[in-house]
Amino acid sequence: MLNFNIAVVFPGQGSQSVGMLQQYRDDWQQVEQTFDQASRVLGYDLWDVVSNGPEEKLNLSFVAQPAMLAADVAVIRIMSEQCMMKPYALAGHSMGEYAALVGANVLDFQDAVGLVAARGRMMQDAVPQDQCAVAEVVGLYDELIIKYCTLASEESGEVVEVSCFNAPGEVVIAGHNIAVDRVIELVQEEESLKRAVRLPDGVPEQCSLMKPMAEEFAALLQQAEFNTPELQVIHNVDAKSHDDVDSIRDALVRQLYSPVRWTQIIQIIGEEADAIIECGPGKVLSALTRKINKEMHSYSLATPESMQRFLDSMSHDD
After folding, report:
1. What would the pLDDT profile of 263-290 be if each residue is shown by its tens digit?
2. How far is it, in rounded angstroms, from Cα 166 to Cα 174?
3. What single string gives the DSSP state of each residue in 84-125?
4. CATH assignment of 129-203?
5. Edge-to-edge strand order for the sheet containing 170-176?
6. pLDDT at 310 exceeding the cut of 80
7. Which comes out higher in pLDDT, residue 203 or 138?
8. C-alpha dihedral (201, 91, 23, 296), degrees to nearest 10
9. CA nearest neighbour of 161 among 218, 152, 294
10. CA distance linking residue 233 with residue 224, whole number of Å
11. In this predicted model, what pLDDT tens digit does every residue of 62-100 receive, in sequence order?
12. Where in the chain is the domain with CATH 3.30.70.250?
C-alpha cells in the first residue's frame, strides 16, 4: 500500500500466559531463536517456563517481564520478515516499552532481557507484596479518580495513585492495600461506575512506591549501551519521542514511578497511523485502541492466523 502508515505497539506484564506463542513456535524458528537468546542471559530455560509453567512462576515479575519481552520481540521479528512495511512509530505498554526500544535498535535484545529481569526483581522486592494492591476502575472520569486517590491517601496516610491511563474512563490504580480499598469504596457511590476491582498482579508499578528502586535501576541503565533510535519510540512517561540516549534512559527511570499515558500515546500515534499493530501475546492493546480511537484499524498478531489476516489486509489497496 502506498503512503500507508503503520505503528506497532507491544503489550507488557499481565498479557503473559502458559502456552503463549505455541502455535508460532510450531511454524516459525524466530520464536525458538529469540527465547534461546533470552535463556542464555537468564541462565534458565525461559521457553520451558512459558510452555509448562507453573503459572505462579511465570507470573513472578522477574520471570514475566523477560518472557513478555521475548514474546513481543519474536512476533515483530516474524512480522518484519513477512511484511515489507516499516512502522513509522513504536510504543510499548509499561515493560513493553523495552520491546519498542529493541525494535528501534536502541537496545540490543539480550541487553534488554537483562534489564527487564533486573527491573522485575527490583519491583518484586521494592515493597512487601502483602501490603500493596493494584485495581482497575472503569466508567469514571480520570479527574474524579485522581480526586478519590488524593482523598484516600490523605485519610489513610498511605499511597494510592493512578498508575495507568489505559483508555477514556479506564484506569488502573496502585498503592497500599488500605488506600486502594478506600478508593474502591469511594467510587461505589458513583452512578456511572462500571467496575472497580482488584487485579491479580499486586506489584504497584508506575507509582511512587517504586521511587526507592529507581536510583539503583538508573545505575543499571547507565551501564547498558543505548543507541540513537532508528524509528520513533513514543514513551510511556510523557507520550513523546526522544532522540537523545540520556533522555531515553531518564524516561525509563521515571516510568517506574509515573503513570502510563496510554490514552495519550494512542491519540498521538493516531494522528499519522492508518493502522496500529499489536505485536505479542493477547489482545489487550488492540481492545484499548478501539476504545480510544474507534476509527483506527487495529490488529492483534497473537496467533499465526491473526498474522495472516493482517498480511492479507495489507496486500489489498483501499
Report:
1. 999 999 999 999 999 999 999 999 999 9
2. 14
3. -PPPSEEEESTTHHHHHHHHTTSS-HHHHHHHHHHHHHHHHH
4. 3.30.70.250
5. 160-167, 170-176, 132-138, 195-198
6. yes
7. 138
8. 110
9. 152
10. 18
11. 999 999 999 999 999 999 999 888 999 999 999 999 999
12. 129-203
Dihedral angle sign, alpha carbons of residues 65, 67, 70, 71: negative
Q: How many CB atoms lie within 10 A of CB 230?
A: 11
Cβ atoms of residues 162 and 173 within 8 Å: yes
Residue 124 sits at the vertex; the CA angle it makes with 263 and 126, to the nearest 5 degrees, is 95
* 122 CB-side CA count, 13 A: 22
Helix, strand, or coil here: 259? coil
Residue 260 DSSP label = B
- Answer whether residue 2 shows pLDDT above 70: no
Owner of C-alpha cell 499486586? 202
Q: Where in the chain is the domain with CATH 3.40.366.10?
A: 6-126+209-314
Across the beta sheet with 232-234, the strand order is 232-234, 89-92, 6-10, 275-278, 297-300
Following DSSP, what letter does each residue of 151-206 receive, concatenated? HHHHHHSS-EEEEEEEETTEEEEEEEHHHHHHHHHHHTT-TT--EEEE-S----TT
Q: Among 3.40.50.1220, 3.40.50.2300, 3.40.366.10, 3.40.50.300, name the CATH number for the domain at 6-126+209-314.
A: 3.40.366.10
Amino acid at 242: H
Question: Cα(269)–Cα(272) distance, rounded to whole angstroms?
Answer: 6
